[in-house]
Design a protein that fits this description.
The chain is built from 13 helices and 19 strands. By secondary structure, it is α+β, with helices and mostly antiparallel strands. It is rod-shaped, with a radius of gyration of 61 Å.
Length: 577
């Protein structure tokens, strides 16, 4: 189907527009597309008429190009061909195509051009199309308003979500900051506790209070203090003199830490004082060294920076308290050790010099700890001319062991006045110790020499066996069965043992500190003692028994930490009368 109109004025243009609308309606063009077609065609025709001349409108139907005949989509083509003048000026034809879902038979539209009623009816139809378009547009506007409202609500939701996300981000950042702060505080607390534990171990490892005082500044400088001054009071209780800061004097008098600076320190448990005249530009922290009776002294520190962290100050006060305990223990230990060693040496007797018998003794206190006061030796004559030589070891150490040793020594001498063999004397000592000190025990070995008897009688109670060197250099251990320890809750009769002892023989009595070593037992030490005693010639023992005693101690103690007392008593029968 093809329709053509020649248009030279507005009436012809209106008729062509109406015919186009009716034809489009007849071919089932949707109202909206039909309205768009007529509107765009009317605008094009108005533009053409303003340019003048005669224009031609052609309407034709067909199928979409490229589809088989009878199967393609029906379309309506509208073409406005320009006038010859416009075409000569280069004006191209105007074209538009709309789909025709409902193709119909040929429709006559020529009557529209002459019948005013048809023209009015066509105009009303166009108005209906316009109204329908306007209705559709109204629906679209309502739909747009609905979507605009949804969009606005969505935007508000997005804004609220952003606000919530921002608040959550701030809360998360604050939580991270709090976590970092807590982690930092925990790390600092762990560092302080670790330092406090390590420093306490260092301070308590020594029993020399001078060493403790020397180590304290080494531990604190430079991390926790720029300088450290430790002032220990004299034993008579004198307090610091004018050379020390006034805050140190206050700390010594009150027993409370003092902080001297131009501004308050705000340190827990520390009292504020004016700045020190000795150091007006430097804060000072004066901490007393407390004990149960009175302070031992005052530790004065200056900060490593401008001031101390409050937690560091608390740690410093606690470390000073522990240092005070360590110093107090070291001073008490040294005092008790000095008393025990003095008592021990005072009670060790001078050896007698009976005819034909030479004696040499050595006593060495322990170099570590308070392990002194338990080992002892003695030698004395009996009324019948015999000589008693004894070496003993009281369990325990310190003053109590020294006092118990002196009581055993005195009791033995008293029992020996009435005579009696070594076994009988040890039996009586056993009964004496059990009734006197039920919780203390002792070991001992006694040897008895008599100028008219070619044998030596000995007895032991829980003690290492004597070592005997013959004149020909052979050495043997007298390992006859000994009695049990003295003082144990057991009734016992300690037996005597006799052994021939020719001129030139040497008997070694000793305590376990000479031969016993940790992790090696006592037997290897006894064997080493036998080797050392056998290394001397008879002439050396006759000529210098004291030097021989030193010659035994040197190799025996070369590998010893001396954590126990050492006693050695050599009894040598002279080779000639």
């Amino acid at each position: 189907m093809t329709r053509t109109w020649q248009i030279s004025d507005f009436t012809e243009a209106a008729r062509a527009r109406i015919a186009t609308a009716r034809l489009a309606a007849a071919y089932g063009v949707p109202p909206v597309d039909r309205a768009r077609l007529t509107a765009s065609l009317g605008a094009q025709l108005r533009s053409c008429l303003t340019k003048g001349g005669t224009w031609r409108l052609t309407l034709e139907t067909g199928t979409v190009s490229g589809t088989p005949a009878g199967t393609g989509e029906e379309v309506l083509h509208a073409v406005v061909t320009p006038s010859p003048e416009a075409a000569a000026a280069g004006q191209p034809p105007w074209r538009v195509t709309v789909p025709c879902p409902e193709a119909v038979a040929d429709v006559g539209v020529g009557a529209v051009a002459d019948d005013p009623a048809e023209l009015a009816q066509a105009l009303l139809g166009a108005d209906e199309d316009t109204a329908l378009v306007l209705e559709r547009l109204t629906e679209q506007e309502r739909l747009v308003d609905f979507h605009r409202e949804e969009l606005q609500q969505t935007n508000q939701g997005v804004v609220a979500l952003h606000a919530e996300l921002d608040a959550a981000g701030r809360a998360q950042r604050e939580a991270f900051a709090a976590e970092r702060k807590a982690r930092t505080e925990a790390e600092n607390a762990r560092r302080r506790l670790t330092f406090l534990a390590d420093a306490s171990a260092v301070l308590t490892a020594s029993l020399d209070h001078h060493e403790i005082v020397r180590r304290l500044p080494e531990l604190l400088v430079p991390e926790y203090a720029a300088s450290v001054d430790v002032w220990l009071f004299d034993q008579d209780g004198d307090r610091p003199g004018p050379a020390h800061a006034a805050a140190a004097v206050v700390a010594a008098r009150t027993g409370r830490p003092q902080y001297a600076a131009a501004h308050p320190g705000g340190l827990p448990g520390v009292e504020d004082q004016p700045p020190s005249a000795l150091a007006p530009d430097r804060p000072l922290l004066c901490i007393p060294l407390p004990t149960r009776q009175a302070p031992l002294g005052v530790v004065t520190l200056s900060p490593p920076g401008e001031r101390w962290d409050p937690d560091d100050a608390v740690m410093l006060v606690e470390l000073t308290r522990r240092a005070s305990i360590a110093i107090d223990h070291a001073q008490r230990y040294q005092h008790n050790r000095d008393i025990a060693e003095t008592l021990q040496r005072a009670l060790l007797t001078e050896l007698p010099a009976p005819p034909g018998l030479t004696l040499a003794a050595r006593y060495l206190p322990a170099t570590h700890g308070l392990n002194i006061g338990g080992d002892w030796y003695d030698a004395f004559r009996q009324p019948d001319g015999g000589v008693i030589a004894v070496v003993g070891d009281v369990t325990g150490h310190g003053l109590r062991a020294a006092v118990m040793m002196s009581q055993l020594r005195t009791a033995l001498r008293a029992y020996a006045v009435d005579g009696g063999s070594p076994g009988q004397l040890l039996t009586r000592l056993h009964t004496f110790l059990h009734h006197l000190q039920p919780d203390l025990f002792a070991t001992a070995v006694i040897a008895r020499f008599h100028p008219d008897d070619p044998t030596m009688t000995w007895a032991a109670a829980g003690h290492p066996p004597p070592v005997l060197r013959s004149p020909d250099g052979r050495v043997r251990t007298l390992d006859a069965k000994p009695g049990a320890m003295l003082g144990i809750p057991l009734r016992q009769e300690i037996a005597d043992h006799t052994v021939p002892m020719a001129r030139g023989s040497t008997l070694a009595l000793y305590t376990d500190g000479l031969v016993e070593r940790r992790a090696r037992g006592i037997d290897p030490g006894i064997a080493r003692l036998a080797d050392a005693l056998g290394s001397f010639g008879p002439a050396a023992l006759d000529a210098d028994l004291e030097g021989s005693a030193d010659g035994i101690l040197r190799p025996m103690l070369s590998d010893s930490e001396r954590d126990d007392d050492v006693c050695l008593l050599l009894c040598h029968l002279s080779g000639t009368d």
